[in-house]
Design a protein that fits this description.
The chain is α+β, with helices and mostly antiparallel strands. 52% of the residues lie in helices and 15% in strands.
């Protein structure tokens, strides 16, 4: 739109009688007024929108990755707590049982050395007590480890001596000095045993 000074009151173009140089200056002003602002020309709304969208997508991806990692950590923590809870339930009485085992040992030794001359009633009473104690321990997952006649297994047996014999296969348990016990699938203590070995002379 032309400046007001170029228009008369009727909106028609004024015919100025000014000096040509003055007209030249006025035309230069008009040209400047009509020249677009470079800042406006360079402004790209679509480009700015695409840039902002890319930044938001990167931020969303980073947040998602963080969420996945934290969720995995939380799941691992939950599993660990669950395992600790199960272990506490299964093995929480371990120390108590360790204290009871020597009592079993003494009762078994008393039965081994007791004879009919010492009183059948006493022997029977000890047997009943031992059986009751073993039954109670079994309810909590305590079981005795097999020994006599089985092959030696270092995971469950502790060899305190070896005996040369041709009557048993080498590496066979032939005598038990002290019982070993398991608490569910955990070793409470190994069985102390004597293990057979092949005679030096090789005779059978």
């Amino acid at each position: 739109m032309l400046p007001n000074w170029l228009l008369n009151r009727k909106g028609e173009k004024n015919v100025s009688k000014k000096h040509p140089e003055e007209h030249h200056e006025e035309l230069a002003e008009i040209a400047d007024a009509l020249t677009p602002d470079p800042a406006v020309v360079e402004d790209d709304p679509l480009g700015r929108l695409e840039t902002a969208l890319a930044e938001k997508e990167a931020e969303a991806k980073a947040n998602w990755d963080k969420f996945i990692r934290e969720r995995a950590d939380l799941e691992n923590l939950r599993k660990r707590f669950q395992k600790e809870k199960e272990d506490l339930f299964r093995y929480g009485n371990e120390n108590l049982i360790q204290e009871i085992l020597p009592t079993l040992d003494n009762m078994e030794r008393a039965l081994e050395h007791a004879g009919d001359d010492n009183g059948a009633a006493i022997i029977e009473g000890v047997k009943m007590t031992l059986a009751m104690l073993l039954a109670s321990l079994k309810k909590f997952g305590v079981t005795a480890i097999e020994t006599k006649g089985v092959l030696f297994d270092s995971a469950f047996h502790q060899a305190v001596s070896h005996l040369e014999t041709a009557d048993q296969e080498p590496n066979t348990v032939i005598q038990e000095f002290q019982k070993g016990y398991m608490l569910n699938d955990r070793l409470l203590r190994p069985a102390m045993v004597t293990v057979a070995k092949k005679p030096v002379n090789g005779e059978e």
